Please model this.
Amino acid sequence: MAEGVGWPPASLRPAVFLDRDGTLVREVHHLRRLADLELLPGVGDALASLRQLGFVLVGVTNQSVVARGLLSLPELAAIHAQLQRRLGAAGASLDAVYFCPHHPDAGEPPWRCACDCRKPAPGMLRRAAADHGLDLGASFMIGDALTDLQAGWRAGCRAVLVLTGYGQRTEAALTPDDQRQLSLAAADLPAAARWIAAQVGHRAPTATVAGGDPGAQSRRSRTT
Ligand SMILES: [Mg+2]
Ligand SMILES: [Zn+2]
Model:
């Protein structure tokens, strides 16, 4: 993409797809209780800065807790309502949250199935693109697992790994091919948002990103 040229696209809009657990909120294995939902530091400001750049913000999360019978759909909806409340209190929100309730081996049909939405499949991103008029080629996927990155790549997006959640473990296990495809390994979501702002040729105007050096967050120059 040429920096600053034709940005944002006139018809289709660019999106940032965001994994939930370990990216937006603290990783809790099979999160089921509202009390366990905790935003990671800086997430509200990071999302607000991405929205100011014109990105549609879409949560995409595998929730096999439904297939496993650990959580009902209303209970999962309550967790996502709580997520939006927490984001709202931090000055942000998601435009939509897509979830995959399936698992190929766990639970009973209809949830136990080989679906097209469980990451690394790109189904949730493609559905969001159709629903919201998104330009996948101008969009980014951010997550802490290889399956997040793969879902982004398969949908035609650029992918950013965050080192929160399982991110450090994921980074250590990347193949050379993964590393070539990966756009960035960022310390956390705020660092990822600063880098995306630099890619689209804008200085995000919030205090969160002012004075940041996006290059300092790149995987090649990262020192810790
Ligand atoms: Mg995750
Ligand atoms: Zn699914």
Notes: Helices lie at 43-52, 73-89, 123-132, 146-155, 167-172, 176-181, 189-199. Residues 204-224 have pLDDT under 50 and may be disordered.
